[in-house]
Structures are given as C-alpha cells and as structure tokens.
Amino acid sequence: QVQLVESGGGLVQAGGSLRLSCAASGRTLSTYAMAWFRQAVGEEREFVAAFSVSGDMTFYSDSVKGRFTISKDNTNDTVYLQMNSLKPEDTAMYYCVAGRPRATMYAPYAYTYWGQGTQVTVSS
Question: Which of 9, 12, 19, 60 could serve as 65's disulfide partner, Cβ 3.0–4.6 Å?
C-alpha cells in the first residue's frame, strides 16, 4: 500500500517562498508518476506539477510555471515542491499524489494514491 505524507505548508506573505515535502513509502518514486495538486476552498482540485513515471520529465500548470519547481530524492523517497514568488491565489490545500497516468498527467482521476494534504496560505 502506498502512503504519502506531506509537510511544509504554512502561512507566508505574498512574494515569499515555501518548500513542500512528500515522504513516500517503499519504492513509490520508481514505480509511479508523482504529482502535486491543490484545492482552494470552493474550487475543484487543480493540477500543479508532476514527474513522469520514468522520472525524467516534468510538467507544470501555466499558473505556476517559472515560480514552482518539482524535484525528488530517490534515495529518501521524497518529492519536493519549491514554491517561490507566492501569490494570494496560491492559497490552497496541497496534495501529493502517485499513480500511472495514461491519457493525461493533468487530471485528478489519473492518480490512485493521495496524501492528506498540507495547507498553504499566502497573505497579501
């Protein structure tokens, strides 16, 4: 069973930075595509960034491209999301996910395993 545990969320001022971490169980990073999604209150879950299953390709939503960076440490089975130049509209619960996407990397249904989430709040 895959387990994903996020950490690193918090309250930050606009323009600030945060780094989220996702500790994965077992050999998750070498078996599944890894991604981050977010969900703001009253909104649908939104794709943020992802690694392909092979781990050699990254994908970003247009809203975070150039500001956020997804990275991973295979030795420690951890995925990171470095978030810079944060904006109030980045405020959301951020989820680490794992799965084997087929048709798309960008849809929540493409991923099987979800963490509990970590809250990011950006004040203006």
Answer: 60
